[in-house]
Amino acid sequence: GNRFDHYDAVMRVGIMGGTFDPIHHGHLVAASEVADRFGLDQVVFVPTGEPWQKSDVSVSPAEDRYLMTVIATASNPRFTVSRVDIDRGGPTYTVDTLRDLRRTYGSDAEMFFITGADALSKILSWKDADDLFSLAHFVGVTRPGFDLSAEHLPTNTVSLIQVPAMAISSTDCRRRVEAGKPVWYLVPDGVVQYINKRGLYRKVGNN
Ligand code: ATP
Ligand code: MG
Description:
This protein is an alpha/beta fold. Helix content is 35%, strand content 15%.
């Protein structure tokens, strides 16, 4: 059976934060690998809130990013999506995400914040960096094009793991759609269809 009996075990929750504009197979593989390696019961995908008006016009509406994340994760029984960052509004700070999810899952839950090599190196510049490490364990995953290192980060709360290399970024997916190039197999089929249905990432507003 499972390593953890649900009635007496501490819940182990992975948290995958991102803009998810759009969600792609790099995000999904990272979450799946960390779930396997750390015996997670669940991975919660948390799309970021809408940036303050006009601060970054290039980010798609939160509801589109939320729905693409739901579509991409729906078939995995261990994957869920949280609206905490979207509903809080404004720019997202990871410390707020972790505090809200700590309230949701309770003080006993073990939380694992999953982050790619590019984001990991910036942690110390995040809001309330000192509190971050008391709220969750941090798992840095490899990402092509970035060095994975936890230099200057507390070694007892940060783990580094290797995941299958997916040279995919949301930025590249958006540029491909804009240029009329395919994103099939970079993002889940349902996400390709949603992008087309909503006409996302096209310079001219109509599909
Ligand atoms: P953008 O190009 O818009 O920044 P992105 O592809 O970097 O998009 P984000 O939503 O910014 O995606 O990333 C969310 C999290 O997923 C970050 O921690 C990021 O490092 C990680 N991540 C994104 N793509 C990959 C990938 N291909 N492999 C491993 N981790 C990834
Ligand atoms: Mg990014």
